[in-house]
Amino acid sequence: MPILPPKKLKAIPLPGLTLDTLGLYFAALGLLRTLSHKWPQVRGCWRNGVFTVVLGPQTLEELEDFLFDVGTKDQWSQYGKPWDAPQKADTKAARTKKPVEAVAQWRAEADESDLPVLASHLVPGEKRNSFNPIFGTGGNAGKRLFASGWMKAKTTVLKPARNIRPDDLRADLHAFLIGESCSILGDFAAGSWFSSANKVYNSGFQRPFAEGQITPWAMLLACEAFPLLAGSTSRLIGAHRKQNAAFPFVTRAPAPETEAACGQWIGDFWAPVWQRPFSLAEATAVFQLGKAELDGKAALSSAAFAGAIVQRGVDTGITEFRCFTLQRTTSDNTFESQLTRVIAIPKENPTFSELFRRILLFRDRLPEDRMQGKSWRFKGLRGPLDRALLELAQVIGEGNEQRQFEAALNVLDAQFTALAKVDRNKTHREAKVTFERLPLDLLVWLAKHEGGSAEFRLAVAIASLKSEIPPARNGRHAPPRLPQPFLAYRLGAVPEKYFWSIPKDRPMRAIWSPRALVDNLCALARRRLIDSHASGIAPFRSHFPAPLADVLAFLQGETDDLLLARWIDRLSLFDWRYDRELFNALKPEELPALHWNGETALYAYFRPLVHEELLRGLQKQISANDRHFKQAENRPSLDRWPKQKDEHFLATSGRLSNVFSALERGDTAVAWAHAKTVYHALRIPIADFGHNPHFVSNQPRRLLAALIIPTESFGLSRYFPEHWQAPSQPKANSQVA
What we know:
By secondary structure, the chain is of the alpha+beta class.
């Protein structure tokens, strides 16, 4: 039996019904609902931003004939506001704190056909009614009475003026559907959804403004879509507790970024767009049952909705969402819709999904901007974070990895800025903000797209400084203060079991300030030594040490300190654990040859004191040389210190204090002498440079800052014995500058 080719469906594109305005989006849905009265199998979708009708009328002319008959024979769904009187009674009761029950009683007695329109406008509550921001307060937005606008549009079509002929109405319908200029124009109280329905000032006409410029067909079709915007029964139950939860795809608007923007946005409507032809039943299901979830919870804010899109916590069949922000204009009641963002449904991405989950949990715990009385208490913490998350969700849908990298950095900057503001503000600290550190999977992705700069690798080494394990203690005494992860010194945050929190009182451990990076690193070195046990080893270890060439470049001022400080702030937010994939991603493909001079030679001299593996390696080399000399000369060992097999002594925090203090105050010679004493105690001999050698560093504080950056021992294990234990110069006073 031959296989028949697939049947091609007749499609009618309508270039006038685009996704540019919220009104045109509603008009497309209203057209689908109207056509289903005659063609129950009709379907509609958006192709390249244009609404397309499938499996309905065969030609555009047939479609126009049907709509013209509906309009001229008054076959529209009736749109009124019969709940107006009960709504006003409830508003008055809410002001006097009396029971709010008039609308609920009216709904119990109303005709069944009126309930979908009511449910799309408002939901009765116990203390107050919840209004869908798309319709203002139950169908009223200041002087815009939407039901009155619908009645005016219906009358214009049903009983046109004397100068309007039926052919003019038909031509206007055709022009509207194909996106051409119409002749029968008005505002029809539709300025909240159609931007062209508002007055246009300085329009070039003789009058100072032009009236609304939309056709009545646009308003009539848009109002036909309103019953679709009602949520299902399960969404309406208890909806008064969360106002936006009752209405599908409606969320709170992003938090304001400036005090002047407080109260300007009413909310956001996320219009779902589909490319596969949907029937009316499928479109109704999208709105009734459709919701966005993030980590199993309903997304009530725009940032959470964007996170749900990235996490693909939305109903299937939708290809993108168009966010229309409802913004107040001339009064508190009057608003207009504006297309602010388009987010495509991306491929599954666990890395970004987890990033959104953790940051949104942190975002919801930040102090929010609240209205107290008639004024706003502006905090300014959530707004920049909302904007950064929305931008990241948008570029994830676009699939541009370079823009994703930039947007991800903006999110990190916004989160750290919010944390820093909380850290510096006593009132914000009282909120006890908690947060999770970010996953290393994201850092692996960043490392692959960052480009391999020295500043990035240095920041990884500094930000990943580990906490130290306390030494064994007998008895039940309280453990000593211990070096914590780097974040505890960067911000006044304390680690808990699963989260970090910012306590009410700022810990003394938080030593970072707006001063220069070198000064902050010196303060970090001093504080970590204070937190260490006197017998503990140097507390400057990390699983991700920086290459030696990068550290020497920092020492010689060849890196950008501002960029390095910014990377340190970003990377301090991550949950630092050992990760093989990240370790491999951080390996540079090629590094410049090590450049040794007087400054770097001093670094090589001090570095083993804070590097456990390097110090052990030097001690093993000395032990091996001792054994070789004893066997060759048949003489006893020259080692003057008795020790057991494979036993090594390490530099302790107590011994390093004098060395660090001398470097911090700029006395390199005293620091060198203290270090020589430590080497002597560790059984590592230093060559004789004569009586009172004079070693000088041009930037002793930068030298100290470079010493605490975890780095690899490769290159130092050979340089130290060759130049500090067996130098080529004669035994005399020497100067390294």
